[in-house]
Design brief:
202 residues, alpha+beta, 9 helices, globular
């Protein structure tokens, strides 16, 4: 995969931006200059609790998770991020404060990263990216708000069904223990929910 990394171009990132807004040649070159490729091996940390989040990550291939470990050692997964999605601890990234979260790779994961300073530089030199990233962050905020409301008002089964709908592309890639930690249930209870859903479809 190291060889693949060396051969990776910024085309997936350029394609992503191109679907949102047309980029000229100079803007494409800016993207190639300011975003840096990085490979994370499975289980490798992208961010550890206590460190400052210095990079905004665009996943080319693979899967990242952002999570918190509580005082009892329980893992609470906030977000999974796979191909063509973005991930960072927004508070730590913009506030330059120590993160209370962890981000690690659930698979060998290839990303393109941009630092806070380079992101500001991108906004200044190509203002259309200011709009692109504002929309990205707004959409992320809406998604997390919906997830918060779901966690305080939905049943475990409703959260499971929502997960299967929103993360259908990952259900065969994630271990059951990871899905359970995201939904907020035990792996055993998740097994019962999955069996129940399988029987209802048969």
């Amino acid at each position: 995969m190291k060889e693949n990394l060396l051969q990776t171009s910024a085309e997936p990132l350029l394609d992503y931006f191109g679907r949102l807004i047309r980029l000229n040649v100079e803007e494409k070159e800016l993207v190639k200059t300011l975003f840096k490729p990085r490979l994370y091996r499975k289980r490798q940390y992208v961010l550890q609790e206590g460190d400052i989040c210095t990079q905004f990550n665009f996943v080319v291939r693979g899967c990242l998770r952002m999570y918190k470990i509580d005082d009892k050692g329980n893992t609470h997964i906030i977000q999974f991020t796979s191909e063509n999605w973005w991930l960072m601890d927004i508070g730590s990234f913009h506030g330059k404060t120590p993160s209370e979260l962890n981000i690690d790779a659930l698979e060998d994961t290839m990303v393109f990263q941009i630092s806070h300073q380079n992101l500001i530089d991108l906004y200044t030199r190509a203002p259309k990216f200011n709009l692109i990233f504002r929309v990205l962050i707004e959409n992320s905020f809406v998604s997390l708000q919906k997830r918060l409301l779901q966690n305080i008002s939905s049943t475990a089964e409703e959260r499971y069904l929502s997960f299967m709908q929103n993360y259908s592309h990952l259900t065969n890639r994630l271990p059951q223990v990871q899905m359970a930690a995201f939904i907020g249930i035990t792996p055993e209870f998740l097994s019962r929910l999955r069996n129940k859903q399988a029987k209802s479809k048969s």
